[in-house]
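Supplementary Methods, section 5.1.

A reviewer requested that the exact input to the structure prediction be made available. We therefore reproduce it here, unchanged from the version used in the analyses.
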Amino acid sequence: MNKLTIIGNVARDPETRTTQSGLTLCTFTVAVNRRHRGENEADFFRVTAWRQLGELCQKYLVKGRKVAVIGSVSASAYKAQDGTPRANLDVTADEVEFLSPKQEEAKQENTPNAVKSGFVEVTDDELPWE
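The structure derived from this sequence is encoded token-by-token as follows.
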């Protein structure tokens, strides 16, 4: 079974294309942080989402948003222009979960009482039963 789960941040805005047969596909890159010898590094996964899932990704994902992706992974090796060996990690998404909702981010930026955890502070004066 080839199943991968990654959680990370969208590294660049999604790109959407339509195949000649009319299928929608959306590609985006997810940066996944990891620690290596005490230093923070990131692995980059190119994600492809098809059909309705691809349309949803195009509509709701932007660079910087946190996302979880479940799907199958494939690796391919190539040589960069400078001759160094490189590898691509490509994920075909079966599921994509948006972990930082767009509406909550907009509210947090515009509301002075907003707390970074996604909750808004409510004072006793705002309670309806007092």
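Confidence is low (pLDDT under 50) at residues 113-118. These observations are discussed further in the main text.
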